[in-house]
Design goal:
Mean pLDDT: 92
Order of helices and strands: EHHHEHEHEEHH
Largest sheet: 5 strands, mixed
Distance between the termini: 36 Å
Number of strands: 5
Oligomer: single chain
Number of helices: 7
Strand content: 5-15%
CATH architecture: 3-Layer(aba) Sandwich
Length: 182
């Protein structure tokens, strides 16, 4: 893992977004989802939930499974954090859950989803709301696919329709509506 630690703004929110880990550009720009995947993610929220990037960042707490850039894999892509690294950083996520007591958690990508639900195909998770618990806190969970340009899942069917369903569930969730008006 490569420092610095990257985290979102200190936002007191009932909505928590959990990503995988920072990419190579996030340490330079000093914020999560700061580059290509972030542009896609914030476009989703702008187009389907009516919230621009600045509003999102100021009203949604943004966390990650791992807080530092894990480095590159042998093929040049971002390395997926190892189980030991995930365990090492897990205490931060647990503490954030206990402090925030979110009503809605939005895990982005398979690694983030796996912190809350058993691993399964995206078609069985995206577009649905689950009731989940971690660190003694219960909350609704609406998973999203990773907005990476490397993955075509969210650009083809059924991914495109399931993504639209998931964003609709987020937009209609009481915690999201409170976040927007509060």
């Amino acid at each position: 893992m490569h420092k610095p630690v990257i985290s979102g703004a200190p936002v007191l929110s009932k909505v928590l977004l959990v990503g995988q880990a920072p990419g190579v550009k996030e340490p330079i720009l000093g914020r999560p989802f700061a580059w290509t995947a972030g542009k896609t993610l914030f476009r989703w929220f702008s187009e389907q939930c009516g919230v621009d990037e600045a509003t999102f960042r100021s009203t949604v707490y943004m966390a990650a499974v791992c807080r530092c850039f894990p480095g590159k894999n042998a093929h040049g892509g971002d390395r997926v954090p190892a189980p030991a690294e995930i365990t090492e950083c897990g205490g931060w996520l647990d503490a954030e859950l206990r402090i925030l007591k979110p009503e809605l958690v939005i895990p982005v990508g398979k690694l983030a989803i796996a912190q809350f639900l058993p691993v399964g195909p995206l078609v069985e998770m995206i577009g649905k709301t689950f009731r989940a618990q971690r660190a003694g806190v219960a909350f609704d969970l609406v998973p999203l696919p990773h907005p990476s340009g490397a993955s075509p899942w969210h650009r083809t069917e059924p991914g495109r329709s399931l993504l639209h369903q998931a964003l609709g569930k987020i937009a209609q969730h009481p915690a999201w509506k409170q976040r927007v008006s509060g």
